[in-house]
Amino acid sequence: TKEVSGLILLDDNFATIVTAIEYGRKIYENILNFVRFQFTTTTALLLTNFVALLLGLPEPFKAIQMLFINIIMDGPPALAIGLEPANSKVMEKPPRGKDTKYITKNFMGVVGLNGLAMTALMIIFYIALERYGVSDEKYLSMSFVTMVCFQLFNALNCRSFERSFYEGIGKNKLLLVSLGISFVALLATINIPELESFMQTTTLSIYETLVCIAYASSILLIEQARKKLGIFIEKR
Q: How far does CA 41 lie from the centroid of its chain?
């Protein structure tokens, strides 16, 4: 019987079955959130670089900065997103069929919306820096800091497809710690001379740093609006 069966119940207690289903759904959602974060990050980074060069704007990122964003800045938060605790509504969703596609239109819609939003905002930011006559060194550093902050704020967005970024935020302490560590590492790249030389950045004032952070936080509002309006959310 064991050899031909597709599933073996070692414990037929109903409560155990419910717990197992909830655990499985949590893992499934976390994988989707992890992939969404990585897809959005890559989309925004590549499109921003491409559009900026297409418009004749100065080079927005150096190669080392792009590697830093993809490996150091995105790695720890992405792993923490994969460990997000299950939310209270995970069992309210209808069962998924075995033939349900992993990457759906709604999934790609969210990735595209946020990726394009960050790209558009970054291009607007570049044009503003150009107009205000910001030096090339400051331009490069501020664009780098802003893009990293976009990714860190977006990590909060990617905790869930439907819930607000602040709901249950204290439950995933690993994510908060990883975001804190990533932010400290970011500040180090624009304040420690040895790292500045390696990362090809320059020191930013407190005001300039706060401008980058505040501007990047706009992605929270964009994603919050999407969730409230029910855009790219599966109908139940």
A: 6
How confident is the model over 179-218, as pLDDT tens digits? Answer: 999 999 999 999 999 999 999 999 999 999 999 999 999 9
Which pLDDT does position 235 carry in this prediction?
A: 65
Q: Judging by beta carbons within 10 Å of its beta carbon (0-12, 13-18, 19+), is residue 218 exposed, middle or buried?
A: middle
| pTM (2 d.p.) | 0.90
Please give the Cα distance from 44 to 202 (Å, whole number): 23
Name the helix (H) or strand (E) containing 71. none
Residues 69 and 150 sit within 8 Å (Cβ to Cβ): no
* φ/ψ bin of 200: left (φ > 0), alpha (ψ from -120 to 50), beta (otherwise): left
What integer is the mean pLDDT of 212-231?
A: 96
| Sign, CA torsion 67/70/76/79 | negative
CB contact at 8 A, 44 and 122: yes
Under 8 Å CB-to-CB from 3, ≥6 apart: which residues? none
